[in-house]
Amino acid sequence: MQYAGQAVSVRDAGDGLYEVVFDLAGDSVNKFNQATLAELRDAVAALQGSDGVQGVLFSSAKDVFIVGADITEFTQMFERSEDEIVAGLLEMNQVFNSIEDLPYPTVTAINGVALGGGFELCLATDYRVASTVAKVGLPEVKLGIYPGWGGTVRLSRLLGVDNANEWVCGGAEHKAVAALKAGAVDAVVDPAQLRDAGLDLLRNCIAGKFDYRARRLEKQSAIRLNQVEQMMAFESAKGVIGAQAGPHYPAPMAALKTMQKHAGLTRDAAQAVEARGFAKLAKTEVCRALIGLFMKDQQVKKTGRKHAAGAAPVQQAAVLGAGIMGGGVAYQSASRGVPILMKDINEKALQLGLDEATKLLGGQLKRGRLDAAGVAKTLTMIRPTLSFGDIANVDLVVEAVVENVKVKQAVLAETEQHLKDGAILASNTSTISITELATALKKPENFCGMHFFNPVHKMPLVEVIRGEKTSDAAVARTVAYAQTLGKTPIVVNDCPGFLVNRVLFPYFGGFSLLLRDGGDFRRIDKVMEGFGWPMGPAYLLDVVGIDTAHHADAVMAAGFPDRMTHEGENAIDRLYSLERFGQKNARGFYAYAPDRRGKLKKAPDETVTAALSGVVGAAREFSDEEIIERMMIPLCIETVRCLEDNIVASAADADMGLIYGIGFPPFRGGALYYLDQMGLANFCAMAAKYADLGPLYQPTTRMQQMAERGATYYG
Ligand SMILES: NC(=O)c1ccc[n+]([C@@H]2O[C@H](COP(=O)([O-])OP(=O)(O)OC[C@H]3O[C@@H](n4cnc5c(N)ncnc54)[C@H](O)[C@@H]3O)[C@@H](O)[C@H]2O)c1
Prior knowledge:
With 715 residues, this protein is of the alpha/beta class. The protein contains 31 helices and 20 strands. It folds into 3 domains: 281 residues, 2-enoyl-CoA Hydratase, Chain A, domain 1 (Alpha-Beta Complex); 178 residues, NAD(P)-binding Rossmann-like Domain (Rossmann fold, 3-Layer(aba) Sandwich); 139 residues, N-(1-d-carboxylethyl)-l-norvaline Dehydrogenase, domain 2. The strands form 4 sheets. The protein has an 8-stranded mixed β-sheet with strand order 13-12-11-14-15-16-17-18, sandwiched between helices. The protein has a 7-stranded mixed β-sheet with strand order 1-2-3-4-5-7-10, sandwiched between helices. β3, α1 and β4 form a beta-alpha-beta unit. α3 packs antiparallel against α12 and α29 crosses α30. The longest helix is centred in the middle third of the chain and has 24 residues. The chain is globular, with a radius of gyration of 28 Å. The model has no long low-confidence stretch (mean pLDDT 96). Bound molecules: nicotinamide-adenine-dinucleotide. The site of nicotinamide-adenine-dinucleotide has 24 residues, from α14 and α17. Nicotinamide-adenine-dinucleotide (NAD) binds next to α14 and α17. It catalyses: a (3S)-3-hydroxyacyl-CoA + NAD(+) = a 3-oxoacyl-CoA + NADH + H(+). Pathway: Lipid metabolism; fatty acid beta-oxidation. Its EC number is 4.2.1.17.
């Protein structure tokens, strides 16, 4: 018996054993697109129709096993009615069930990544042997859905309720050894032995050494817990999972409830419950936004690869300034294997930079991500220095000294003299024009912005800023370096604040106006956090630093005087003049003190009311809706301006920049997606209500024209 398709083939492995091999033609990975699924169905039918088959191994000819379902097909699929979605799922379940029901043992050899639908296939076979480098998991909740091809049914029966809750509702990937411990795979072997181990397991089943039928029955039956045990397991998980997911992400809780609902049912009935719940999730706005987000992320990464095409990798980097940002860049570069010189003018600062890196590496050690040798190796890649000694060997320099045009220009000009031909200079400035900084340089073509966010090791975004004279080659190499550091670079054109800060400051502008009109900052924070922001604007200002914000506010006002200047003193000015700089000196809008683990904790500060007297107007009640509208309108309009002014190249770049750079609520898809969802006409009507608040609330002419035409940013 042989079957050969474009993605799936069946080969004779000798002695009655057959191997179903996944190898999607023309792609670097295996995924379950419609064509692959159709071939799988045919391959299984061919097996069913063949005599003499005694066991089947499922394997992959690529580095991955199967990365999951093809998410690009989801949008169209989820546009169907709930009933049609359910029917589609049950049809796929029949294929997976027919694998589970084959009259002989089945094993999956998991050689690499097996996620989502890819792992659900593994669960349909009797046993799973994983290579030491394999990773498995069910990440569907990250897309606002849950596993729909029997994953919630089989996993809860195989792993037990507690583990299954954690795996399905958390959506994490698990390394092979952890999967073995949880019972999600049955053996872990070296990659070279994987296939033989799988075939051996089949032979042992055939010889009766393993009772594969009992294994199978376990997956097909109800969960073996009595009513009370079931209730205890599921009800106690609800609090934890609800708190982890928060109010805006319904999928984890829906997954939990589905598993509870089908716990007492046998396979096919349980799958019907799973399918119904899946279809409901697939129709939600959150699911649509999260799938859209996945696509935008793919698009942004693809654009990044295009920008970086042909760039020689950075072999040796340098960073100027060993402060918060410089220290962070040094750590990130070293931990990604690119040696880096860390230059400062201050010995103490160098030590602080190294201490920070050591602390972060200590965390990796504690979490088991690095061993002691790895920590030592990474640390040797950071070379602190007070001189320009070895800078002639460097391919790319990140300048991260104080935010001051004159200082930066002097440092950049001096550095340039020591660099080899073709080396790139990149400034981590958060606000200063790259074109302006470039005027101090002899070779402005080799200069661009490389704007990291704080904390560098955590924040995924890097804005790469193209000045007027920046060459494509400089952009390419900087983008490539950001990718090597594991970041998502977005290339933007030069303007004050670039994309992220240019959009953030009008949002702070909206906040200042709310305070002026008598809003309470604690309530505004609460409402905006409820809207989905990781922190409200007052808390965010404290984290950014009131001094930093005050400085940037002035730069933005000078850059966009028509709308970003403000009359008189605002809350930021006041806190700045009182030296309440936020977290960095333990007092801003809130007070801060380290908790037992040394993490800064926010607390109410009674002195702030007096501190803000005169800049906060007579107290007035605002509805949640009004707070949200007054905060979001300036942010949305400024994002549109960035697109209209060609600061960003696409709506996806803008939205992902905001999500990765300032934590715009991901389930809302970004500012432009949010506008599309609301409809531009509705947005313009809403903005008109606030016209008296000034130009931050004035949609652009093009927005109004688009509103009239019913146009959208994503087409
Ligand atoms: N902190 C943030 O949240 C953040 C975020 C994004 C970008 N940035 C930008 O990064 C840059 C650095 O900010 P930071 O917060 O790390 O500042 P910082 O004050 O923590 O560090 C600046 C460091 O530069 C050193 N320095 C000053 N002059 C120097 C010189 N001539 N040569 C070498 N080193 C010199 C100082 O000794 C200090 O260690 C600024 O441009 C800032 O706008 C900061």
